[in-house]
Amino acid sequence: IGNLQPPSSHFANSRIGRSEEANQTNRVAKYNLRSFGNEVDDSLEMHKAVLTAIVTILLTISTILTICSLDTPAFCNSAIDDNLQ
Length: 85
What we know:
membrane, KCNMA1, transmembrane helix, rod-shaped, transmembrane, 0% strand, mainly alpha
């Protein structure tokens, strides 16, 4: 009879087990959230690089068009002449 545990300790043990499970679940969730955040950061960096490249190309084109729209663009006239022939 001395070896038997009172019922309250059984409930306490199961409660401790449940809280340890909850802690483990929280740790896994935090890790998953952190790795998801890293993936988002990586994709944002990639998008930034792509957008930077697009903006650079557009600026280059607009600069060339601006130079060509000036009064005496020597290289633009020669390029147009080459295309017409």
